[in-house]
Structure formats: C-alpha cells, structure tokens
Design brief:
Elements (H helix, E strand, L loop, with lengths): L1 E2 L9 E2 L11 H13 L7 E4 L6 H8 L4 E5 L3 H18 L5 E5 L3 H6 L7 E6 L7 H11 L3 E12 L11 E9 L2 E8 L4 H25 L1
Parallel strand pairs: 3-4, 3-6, 4-5, 6-7
Antiparallel strand pairs: 1-2, 7-9, 8-9
Helix pairs in contact: 5-6
Length: about 220
C-alpha cells in the first residue's frame, strides 16, 4: 500500500500499478521531503515527476504545498492509475486548487515536445533501474534548461549505479544512500546557452529513436 505521508492530503491511499513500477518507500520519501522542507522548496513550487509510476512523489509535493504538477508516465495502465490518483488528490485538497496534469508519453518524447519551455522548481527523476545511462543523461540535459534558477533535480537509482553524468547547468550538492536506494540532488546554475541548445538536439534525437522503435515493434 502506498499513501501520502503528510500535508493537506496526508494519509490518502494511492492506487499502485500491479507491475512495471518501483514505488519509493515511505522511509525514503519522508527523507526526501524533509530535505525539501528544510530548503523551503515546497510551498508554491512547480514540480515535474518524470517517471511517475503511481505519482506518489508528485502527489506528496502537492499535498505539502506545491501549486503546479506535471506527471509523465508512458505505460497506459500506469498512466490511468496516475490520473485516478490525481482526481483523488484534487478532491481531498478541497480548499486549494493546484494544477495537476498527467502526460501519457515517454520521458524523452514529453521533454522534446515542451516547446513553450515550462519552468519547474523541483524535478523528480525516479526511472526503472534498468534505464540506460545514456537515456538518463539525455533526460538530464533536456531538463536542465527548463529548471528555474536554483531549482532542484532529484535522481533516484540503485545504490550500485554510477553517479549520473551532470550536464552543463546542473551541479551536484548532495548524495545519500538508503540501503539499495541512492539519491542524488543537483541544483540548477547559470549554464552555457550553446550547451543547452545541444541538449535540445540530444533529447529530440532520443525521442525520435524511441518513436522509431515503437513503430518497428508494431
């Protein structure tokens, strides 16, 4: 069972996909959000949950004061569960009306399509452990120019995984391990515009590769 730990929707039970996702444990989520609260990075912020699963990380942020949330999940059944959870969270919040949007797309495809360059304060990247390092790097390059100055990215991986290769515009400032789980926090800093342009091209190439593979499979 997965539940929202604290905030306006605290104790609300969330539906979880039967397979294909790896929910972040209550212990790790509590540690993550204690850090965000200590950094004053929850109230009024805009959040991206890039590999949403059940949406637990994003919904925890909304429960604790985030006002905008984008959830990205490519698997159809999981995306339906995220949408169902979003409705439950919106209903439980009553007095507030955060914007919550669910995007049924692959991460690379979604990021490549963000032509209006939405800006986020906090980004959660908690992909399946079998996600390739090159795909993770492409995600980070695509997200970096879309973070507000001093915005934060959290990457959750297996403790046996190497540290992510941080692109221009992101600087690691904290790492913490919780058993089999490793958490990296990076902060957005002023980056090189040319590097950001290169990130746009990289993520578009990755998205095209994903779409081409899907067409071939069909």
């Amino acid at each position: 069972m997965t539940r929202i730990i604290s905030g306006a929707a605290g104790s609300l039970t969330l539906d979880v996909p039967k397979s294909g996702t790896r929910p972040t444990s209550d212990r790790v989520r509590e540690a993550l959000f204690s850090s965000l609260e200590s950094w004053n990075m929850l109230e009024g912020v805009s959040v991206l949950d890039l590999y949403a699963g059940s949406g637990a990380l994003g919904f925890e942020a909304v429960s604790r004061g985030a006002t905008e949330l984008d959830l990205v999940e490519k698997h159809g059944p999981a995306a339906q569960i995220v949408a169902r959870n979003a409705a439950k969270v919106q209903s439980s919040l009553r007095g507030s009306a955060p914007r919550i949007d669910v995007h049924r797309q692959a991460a690379a495809t979604y990021l490549a399509g963000c032509r209006e360059v939405p800006l986020w304060d906090v980004v959660f990247i908690d992909p399946p452990y079998d996600l390739g390092e090159n795909e993770l790097i492409a995600d980070l390059k695509a997200v970096a120019p879309r973070l507000r100055q001093q915005g934060l990215i959290m990457v959750e991986r297996s403790s046996r995984s190497p540290e992510p290769a941080w692109p221009a515009g992101l600087v690691l400032f904290k790492k913490k391990s919780y058993g089999e789980t490793a958490i990296w926090w990076a902060e957005a800093v002023e980056g090189d515009a040319e590097a950001f342009d290169g990130a746009e091209e990289a993520v578009e190439d990755t998205a095209a590769h994903i779409e081409g593979a899907a067409e071939a499979a069909n």
